[in-house]
Amino acid sequence: MDPQFDDKALENTLTESLADLVAVAQADLVPDAKAVSEDEFVEVVGGALEAVGGTLLFKMCVENEGESQHVAAASVGDGGNRQFLLLTLPTSGGALKVESTSKSTNPVAGIAAAYAGLMDAFQAAA
Predict the structure, then answer these.
(1) Where are the beta strands (DSSP E) in 1-126?
(2) pLDDT tens digits, residue range 86-108?
(3) pLDDT digits (tens, 9 = 90+) for 33-81
(4) Cα 61 to chain center, whole Å?
(5) In the sheet where 97-100 sits, what is the strand order?
(6) Non-local CB neighbours of 110 within 8 Å, separated by 6+ positions
(7) CA-CA distance, 96 to 79, in Å (whole number)?
């Protein structure tokens, strides 16, 4: 079996699973698409990542294409199977977007793998 196909299948499965979990949590947390605080965003993302065994790498609030949004980078899996995901949510509320960093056009996506590598190096040195 083609290893690249396996990676794509795994990436799609993880992205879909995380999106489903976050959609349920988000519906409970922000039912009327109101402004979303950083704490609410972290709660939704943290709960979803915990459910799939993921790790939050970092979070920030940025302007992207004229819209203020919460952004979180996460990793799921480890070693050669580690996948990096980007989760974005407009601060004004709305739908959470979950995508693999390799397919994302968001400028923050390129930071996720580098950040994870840096954290791995710090952990090994500790």
Answers:
(1) 54-64, 67-76, 83-90, 97-100
(2) 988 898 888 788 888 888 888 88
(3) 578 889 888 888 888 888 888 889 999 999 888 889 999 999 888 877 8
(4) 13
(5) 54-64, 67-76, 83-90, 97-100
(6) 101
(7) 27
